[in-house]
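Tokens for chain A. Residues wanted.
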């Protein structure tokens, strides 16, 4: 009976860890997308500045 309980605990720990990893990946993707948007805005501003100076 002990080994069954331990296995169940290990299994639920594994599920919890998997959930944490998935959440972490989602947050990384969101941050990556946010950074990409900022980079696009920055590039647009740089182009505008260049055009103004010309």
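Reply:
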């Amino acid at each position: 009976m002990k080994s069954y309980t331990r296995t169940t605990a290990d299994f639920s720990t594994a599920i919890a860890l998997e959930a944490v990893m998935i959440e972490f990946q989602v947050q990384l993707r969101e941050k990556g997308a946010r950074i990409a948007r900022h980079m696009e805005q920055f590039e647009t501003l740089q182009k505008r500045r260049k055009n103004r100076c010309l």
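The CA atoms of residues 46 and 52 lie 10 Å apart. DSSP finds one helix and no strands in the chain.
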